[in-house]
Amino acid sequence: MRLERTHSKSGGTSAFTLIEVCIAMTILGLTIASSIVALRIGFGMMESARDNTLASQILQSEVENLRLKNWQKLKELQDGPFQMEETFQETAAGRFSCQQVVDEPKSGLLHVRLQVTWDASLGPTRTLQYVTYFSQEGLNDYYYRVLPQ
């Protein structure tokens, strides 16, 4: 649709009416407002993805540290906070808290649950955990899950 000024019979040009200008400004305002909302949602999703990735890296790093320990060192593990690697201290130390829970369901088998909790800036407290089993005479594996909110 092309908007043009029309010539009147008296030889002058006529302008757009006030109603047409108001409608155009309303459409422009709605477009800008919806763009700002979309950007805000997008930035929130990026922050959430960044935090989830950082929490996964913290947990993966701790699981790999545990895999390097022998059975005697694993038996000495206790429930409570664990210290994250120095590489994460600068970016995550203030917002992320780390906990481990160690259980021995039967002799020769350890159940270790590692959990990272953080406060999302635009939402509720988030938690990510890894669970692994260690056996005295065998291999181990782990899986992860996000706890329901």
Describe this structure in words.
This protein has 149 residues and is α+β, with helices and mostly antiparallel strands. It has one domain (18-146). It is built from three helices and five strands; from the N terminus they run H-H-E-H-E-E-E-E. The chain has a five-stranded antiparallel β-sheet with strand order 1-2-3-4-5. Strand 2 (96-106) and strand 3 form a beta hairpin. The longest helix is centred in the first third of the chain and has 50 residues, at 18-67. It is rod-shaped.
* Percent of residues in helices: 40-55%
Integer count of domains: 1
**Strand fraction band?**
25-35%
- Order the strands across the largest sheet as they lie in space: 1-2-3-4-5
Number of helices: 3
Radius of gyration: 29 Å
Main beta sheet strand tally, sense and closure: 5 strands, antiparallel
| N to C succession of SSEs | HHEHEEEE
Morphology: rod-shaped
What keyword list fits this structure?
rod-shaped; 5 strands; 3 helices; alpha+beta
